[in-house]
Amino acid sequence: AHEATVHQLEESTVDVNYPGCEITAVDIGTDGRLAAITFKTTAGDERTIPADDLIVAIGFVADLGPMKTWGFELQRNQIVVDKTTMDTGIAGVYAAGDVVTYPAKFKLIVTGAAEAVTAVNHAVTYYDPKARLDAGHSTNIMEKREKAEAGASAED
User: Nearest 5°: phi and psi at 148?
Assistant: First the structure.
């Protein structure tokens, strides 16, 4: 992620839990959307938090852990996805990186990064069909934000 975006996330009210949390349960609301996540912290404490979104970053060695029981189609201990969308076959669930497989997959960091972009953009349009599939380049987004902020402060 862009350094400014990471800083903005860390300064926000978003509950960021990393590294080493183990997700033990995902609760889906009556509307079919994510409602809460239960996880174990590195200290072994279990917490449940309300959640709108879940982005999982699993360490250097792919390990599906409890996700093996979530109903994904698995092949060689990896989640089978549609390589054009990173769709797992479970409505609204997308995956990327070393935990996924598809024909002719290359296991490279750059491949995982590209898969993550594809997965996130398709997830956004799944949950908000009016959203743009391509959110644009981060440098352009930051430039537009800075110009907008400069214009707002000039008006003050």
Answer: -65, -40
Return the higher-pLDDT residue of 79 and 142. 79
DSSP for residue 147: H
Domain range for residue 49? 16-54
Tokens for 8, please give them. 């903005």
In a domain, residue 29? The reply is: yes
| Arithmetic mean of pLDDT over the chain | 85
Q: How far apart are CA 18 and CA 2, in angstroms?
A: 18
Considering the entire predicted model, what is its pTM?
Answer: 0.56
2-36 as b/e: b if 16+ CB within 10 A: eeeeeeeeeeeeeeeeeeeeebeebeeeeeeebee
